[in-house]
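Input structure tokens:
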């Protein structure tokens, strides 16, 4: 099948399919005119690649895992398992950092909400405590309007 047909069957863009091929994750043959042609099995391969990308894996990591798919063996399986465990740990660390970032944003939102709910004194700046410091940071701009509504 040609690249457009593969894109249509898999929902992947033609650009993505070319990228997969550049990264040596997907193979094709070329016609005399230079057009790419894919075997029917490419549909399943693209679906697998899409799942691996959706899981947050990089092209190089996927390339490390594919020998387990292409040439199953105990060694390939062990190597793939170890690599997946490393990726899982990396993702867990990233999730922990994202939770820290979300919590810091929640704290700033609470401070903002408190500011917005106090009686209006005609201030044109919002004063927010600077994390880990005794000084205050002033955010310029007009005072928020409304009664505590979120933006």
């Amino acid at each position: 099948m040609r690249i457009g047909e593969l894109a249509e069957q898999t929902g992947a863009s033609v650009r993505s399919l070319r990228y997969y091929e550049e990264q040596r994750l997907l193979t094709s043959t070329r016609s005399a005119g230079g057009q790419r042609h894919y075997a029917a099995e490419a549909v399943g391969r693209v679906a697998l690649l899409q799942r691996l990308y959706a899981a947050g894996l990089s092209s190089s990591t996927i390339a490390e895992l594919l020998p387990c798919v292409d040439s199953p063996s105990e060694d390939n399986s062990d190597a793939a398992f170890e690599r997946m465990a490393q990726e899982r740990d990396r993702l867990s660390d990233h999730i922990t950092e994202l939770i820290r970032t979300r919590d810091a944003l929640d704290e700033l939102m609470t401070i903002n909400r408190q500011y917005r709910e106090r009686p209006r004194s005609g201030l044109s700046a919002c004063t927010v405590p600077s994390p880990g410091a005794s000084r205050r940071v002033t955010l310029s701009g007009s005072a928020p309007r409304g009664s505590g509504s979120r933006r």
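Confidence is low (pLDDT under 50) at residues 140-151. The two ends are 50 Å apart (CA to CA).
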